[in-house]
Amino acid sequence: MGVKDSKTEQLIKDTAKRLFLTEGRMLATTQDIADAAGVNRTLLHYYFRSRDVLFDLVFKEALRELRERIQSVMLSTAPFREKIENLINVFFEELIKSPYLETFIVLQMNQDPGKYEELFRTLPGGEQKMKIFFKEIQAEMDKGTIPEMKPIHFFMNFFSLMAYPFVARPIYEKMFDLNDAAFKKLVRERKKVILLSLFKNHEV
Q: Which domains does the chain have, with CATH numbers?
């Protein structure tokens, strides 16, 4: 078929990302992706051997980008509360762009934990850096700015407060009759809610 066109390849990948992670069409077929990208299915298979190959590529790239951005903020020299605020900003920015990423993570890890195992290991040097972040959490507890608990519980509470609304989004939209704009408005409001939940005497 000739030399591969990087623009066409990127178009197909971007289209798949939109269908999978933005629109939540987890069962989109190669024909669905080809139609949305304006190419034929034969061309799609030329660039990506199968739907699974394309899915894995899109999923891994999106997750790796989110992890790298989060770790970059975690390892910054910003004061702790500012760091937490920046983490919320980064997480919500990425999840607003790819609102079904967290759902994909949960589904994929439940179905085939070993398949994406390497993506959930810490990035190079990350284990030591996570220990540093946990020490920061403990230092804040010692100062009395956050409630006393094991640092891992603070970490789990923090990311649960951010991630769960996206995982449960379809339920909340039906339960509270929310459209896309209304849900995004709630997400923007959650930054203050999360800070109030995590910090003692937080002024908003």
A: 1-49 (1.10.10), 61-198 (1.10.357.10)
Backbone angles phi, psi at 40, to 5 degrees: -90, 160
| pLDDT 10s digits, 48-66 | 988 888 988 888 888 888 8
Nearest Cα to 83, choosing from 126, 124, 139, 128? 139
Runs of H (alpha helix) within 41-120: 41-47, 51-74, 80-97, 101-111
User: Are residues 33 and 111 in contact, defined by beta-carbon separation less than 8 angstroms?
Assistant: no
Give the span between the Cα atoms of 56 and 51, in whole angstroms: 9
Q: Whole-prediction pTM value?
A: 0.82
Helical (H) or strand (E) element with 140: helix 126-143
Burial of 38 per CB tally in 10 Å (0-12, 13-18, 19+) = exposed
pLDDT at position 158: 95
Report the C-alpha gap between 94 and 65 in whole angstroms. Answer: 9
Token pair in block for residue 202: 């937080």
Radius of gyration of the chain measured on its C-alpha atoms: 20
Of 93, 65, 183, nearest to 85 by C-alpha is: 93
Residues 6+ apart with CB under 8 A from 77: none
